[in-house]
Design a protein that fits this description.
4-stranded antiparallel β-sheet, about 290 residues, mainly beta
């Protein structure tokens, strides 16, 4: 996975199968600035805090770590019962949420002792793949291998406020908020495993937008990350053949497709400031920066 530094995008954070997390200089010499080591197995997901001073990482060694970006120290580490598949930092109180393979979403606080779990969100029947904040960070949306989407009140884990489950639904292993406005997105772009990107409106009522879906790419079985441009005009995604797909948001038609990587193109993110630049990462071990 790859993530931009919040706000400016002058640094790029990446995690990979070699158990390391690296941060890259985007503009000057494009070299690796620092390597963070601490995980004993491959790293699955990373997430910056709102100011970029800290970030959290989730690894296949069942450990979630909280790092200082500047010094490279691991401030705190929590070991869960299942493998954490996704990790998010809540910007208001810096609590860390991790969706795990033991079907729960777990919440920890970096200020409390490492063995103390603040909250567990229990209801899914499969491992939790994504976790996204909506409604000004007051609610959390999770998706899972049980092909359901749950909507939770943040901090209350006994029962979800709403659950979305239809007979035709597939598992949605990657969800991106669109447009990215301070934890209050109007839509969620969900990468569905039946080779389409679905759009859920979440401003007033959480419901499927039936007029918008993006098709053409084949992702069957891969959790390809969806991206969108800052002005909201374009939607971007990788696919299982290593192509990079760009769609027009209004017409939902394909705008361009490029051959990006040799293996799977697993991540594609649009630069937060420069409108024409996209970064992609693939299973060939390369990160590419496109204009």
């Amino acid at each position: 996975a790859i993530r931009w530094f919040p706000g400016t995008g002058h640094l790029l954070l990446s995690c990979s199968m070699d158990c390391k997390i690296k941060i890259w200089d985007v503009y000057n010499n494009r070299k690796c600035v620092r390597t963070y080591t601490g995980h004993s197995k491959p790293v699955r997901d990373i997430c910056f805090s709102e100011d970029g001073r800290h970030f959290a990482s989730a690894g296949y060694d069942k450990v979630v770590r909280y790092w200082d970006t500047e010094t490279g120290q691991s401030i705190q580490a929590w070991s869960g019962k299942g493998i954490p598949y996704c990790v998010k930092i809540h910007p208001k109180d810096n609590c860390i949420l991790a969706g795990c393979g033991n079907k729960n979403l777990v919440q920890w606080d970096p200020r409390s002792p490492p063995d103390e779990v603040v909250q567990e969100y229990v209801q899914h029947l499969g491992s939790v793949n994504t976790c996204t904040f909506i409604d000004n960070y007051r609610r959390v949306v999770t998706s899972s291998d049980d092909k359901k989407i749950f909507l939770w009140e943040y901090g209350i884990g006994t029962a979800p406020m709403k659950h979305v489950s239809e007979p035709w639904m597939h598992s949605m292993p990657a969800i991106t908020s669109y447009p990215v406005e301070d934890g209050d997105p109007k839509n969620l772009l969900c990468q569905s495993l039946d080779n389409q990107i679905l759009v859920y409106a979440c401003s007033d009522r959480f419901k499927l937008n039936k007029k918008k879906h993006f098709v053409g790419h084949t992702i069957a079985g891969y959790a390809c990350q969806v991206g969108c441009s800052k002005d909201g005009k374009y939607v971007v995604s990788g696919d299982g053949d290593g192509k990079l797909w760009i769609w027009d948001w209004k017409s939902t038609k394909m705008y361009r497709k490029l051959k990006a990587h040799d293996g799977v193109c697993i991540g594609a993110i649009w630069h937060p400031i420069e409108q024409s630049k996209v970064a992609t990462c693939g299973w060939d071990g390369l990160i590419k920066f496109w204009d």
